[in-house]
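Feature request, filed as a ticket because there's no other form

It would be nice if the structure record came with a short human-readable summary line next to the tokens. Right now we just get the raw output. Example of a typical job, pasted below so the devs can see what we mean:
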Amino acid sequence: MVSRMAKDYVINLYSRALQMICGSDDNKDMIKIENFQEYPLPEGAMINGVIIDEQPILDILKELKKNGIHEARTAISSGQVLVKILDVPILKKRELLQVVKDELSDISGSYEDLVYDYSVLQQHQAGAEQKGAKILCCAVERKLLNSYIELFERAGIHLKSIDIAVNALHKLTSELVNLTDKTYIISFLDANYVSSYLFENNHYTFSNRTRLFSERGTHAFTSEMNSNISQLIQFNQSKRSPYSIETAYFCGLDDEEEKVVFESIKQNLKIEALEFPDSKLIHISNAEKKKQFQLHDYVFSVGSLIRK
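Raw output as currently delivered:
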């Protein structure tokens, strides 16, 4: 008998909105989504993944609590999250955590009381010279984690887990067959921040997060988007990667921005620029809701539903 996963709630906080999604990762072939909703946040409530003004967020969380949400998962998207990719041999969990601490020590100088963790991105093949895995090392200040935990608790919602955005995204992309063996960039725009992630042969390898200084929809904004993608292309070339970037996918652009940005990148950088695609992996239970759902709006939230 195949076990069925209970439904989970994911509540993610962005600069522009609070996002809720309800669903389950029933099996490797399908993610079922029962409900989803975005609640706009006032400017300044969230900045770079840090909670600045609690009240508007708390009001929404309390409303979700009234609607029956008692526990949820979340994924933090912030420039304050330290990450590094590392190849490691077969080690015990305690030993791996020490390796993570040692590896991140050179970039953690200005941070205090860090919480460390890791996730396995890719198992090395049995025939490889060095058996082990490629892991994503991460560290977050305890006070940032506590700010999320305490705010949710004040609303009466228990946080079951806190992930980081890049890990949630990697879990999603590794399940999408249309991305298998592809090398690409995913750029996620949230108000005046853009996070861009480089995937080589469909494995996450590098990311950056930058603040946008130009007004959305302007010529200067389009130039910033070109510059951001160009930097990742140059990074990929500088490390002599055997994989060439084929496509730049975007999440968070409006329709008018897409037309201009996509055409500009195609002309100037000679790669495809597209909206992040929908997938048959995602099943929307409600027929009416299905018409409204687009995966590019919920990439981190859907990734957070995947258990692995």
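Something like this underneath would help us a lot:
Helices lie at 54-66, 93-104, 142-154, 165-173, 219-238, 255-269, 287-290, 299-305.
The mean pLDDT is 92.
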